[in-house]
Hints:
Elements: H1 17-24, H2 35-57, H3 63-81, H4 96-114, H5 116-122, H6 128-148, H7 151-168, H8 174-187, H9 195-215, H10 219-231, H11 237-250, H12 256-273, H13 278-291, H14 302-310, H15 314-343, H16 356-360, H17 367-377, H18 383-398, H19 408-442, H20 444-456, H21 460-474, H22 480-490, H23 492-497, H24 502-514, H25 524-533, H26 537-547, H27 549-560, H28 571-593, H29 602-616, H30 620-645
Amino acid sequence: MLFRKKNQPENQAPMDLEAVMQKFDRESNIRLWEGWQKVVVTCILAIFSLFCIYVTLFATWLEELRLTTFVAFIVCLAYIVYPARKGKQRVNFMPWYDVLLLICGTGAFLYFAANAETIIQQGSRFAWYQIVIGILGIISTAEACRRSVGIPIVIVAGCFVLYALIWGLSNPTLWGRLNYIVHYLFYGKEGILSTPINVCSKFIVVFIIFGAFLERTGIADFFINISNAVVGGFSGGPAKVAVVASAFEGMVSGSSVANTVGSGSVTIPLMKKTGYKPEFAAAAEASASTGGQIMPPIMGAAAFLMADYIGVPYSNIVVRAILPAVLYFAGVFITVHLEAKKEGLRGLTKEELPKLLPLLKKVYLLIPLILLIYLVSITQRSIQYAAAIAIVAAIVVSFFNKENRITPKRIWEALAAGGQGMIAVAAACGVAGMIAGTITMTGLANMMINGIVALAGNQVIVALFLTMLCCIVLGMGVPTTANYCIMAATCAPILVRMGVPAVAAHFFVFYFGIVADLTPPVALAAYAGAAIAQANPMRTAVTATKLAIGAFIVPYVFALNPALLFIDTTAAEVVVIIITSLIGIFSVSASLEGYLLRNMPWYQRIISLAGGLLLIYPGLVTDTIGIALVAVVVALQLLTRKKAIA
């Protein structure tokens, strides 16, 4: 459907945002249902959401029963909602092979659910038909993930499973190895039913439903408008709006592509209108939107997984994530500011800016989010309870906004949207669990850890660099939640072995898994932004990587000096590291942009880069040298600017 987004410039051609989403976001490529069939599918999705809310809040089921029922729902809905291939879909059509896969996959997990206690008591002794059922369950989960998420993660999982089947296990017979794999990945707690799917079914689902309700209050438009009112009038205002709005939206959204398309449909045309090059406009939105994945409290749903893996409260993760996220967005903001000054770009005119006072009257839209953070961080309530209360609060605050009032019909639609939103996340968690399980049962994790530790010697910085490369490669094309699960199983233990605190190690691999959405060749957020801006995709991805330099620097800061994560530190140390890191990021950004107070010659860019990196590396000596180098560049810039004026 072609439409013009609110606040989109008049001279901007309508953008087919649905086509952009379908091309770059697998979750948006859904089957077409109309009439009574659509009503039935909507009802199933809404009932699934209600089922999840009931189970997470009230049920005391056996864990195997709860998880297998949950995955059975996910597999069933994946085949109902997502077609086998992208492209034009026939309305109300589902081919026979999809029906067969639905029955086999759903049936496999329902068989496990119906016989959970018996299967638990069996140990590792399984009949041939149980092995066949397990294989069907594994294949149907992988195919559900391929349809809803994409093929890269499935290829990774397939390679690990094939390795286990052919080389990785010591059992001499093929049937024996197959039996062990199925037992481990399907019937055990180290595969599909491991930590990722467990956390997803307990915590993530209610937050996805909360996000669906919050979206219907009109909070996304509020974020964009309030950002416009606050920073839109400054030099290069639309790009700064993209950064601020994406930071806000990231608090409640879990998709970098969805963030890019959602706010980018407004900000990218405005950036182009005020003089930004198409590639830069698309890159600014993509880098800011990708940063939404690291913005607490949701963090692309990875915060819940991280809390479970490390064994700390969720509120602990959220608090530690604040400063790194602020530094990341500060880096992007600084770069777009320098680009605006370099190109002499203006902000929006007074006529184009929304009035701040009327917007402040809608600040009540933030109540559900503030209430959620309060309940999770301050009170002793469970995460599920906090999310449920926040959902009720979202419905209540909508009554004060006539345009976005949540009626009973819209409640049902929000429940259905929440149910649909769970499919891709849960399917990805299931496959991520398979990858982690295969790595564990074959001993690959230890081999990787020992290999990188041996290469690094005693140099932590070398281990960090090698781990960064692993994270970027393994994270390409993999969604946030699954991405972090893989990183936590493969890469985080490497850094822990090298003496990096567990929290810092997990944050490090999480950050570098995320930047795969920006780094070529698989830079889906950048490509989505390029489609809206009608820009060159590869140049956009390269520019986005430069803009997101903070995502490459900040992890090294908290890995080498965990004070940034409030680990074993004092308030004074935190203040010092924030100041030096901000100056360092500013200096590095200026070097990459080639502009500080005026255009920088090559030698000033080198000095600025060196000074910035030294400030980022913790230590009194490095900070002192870094400050001195930055001061030299600033002095040279001031001197040459005075000469130019004279």
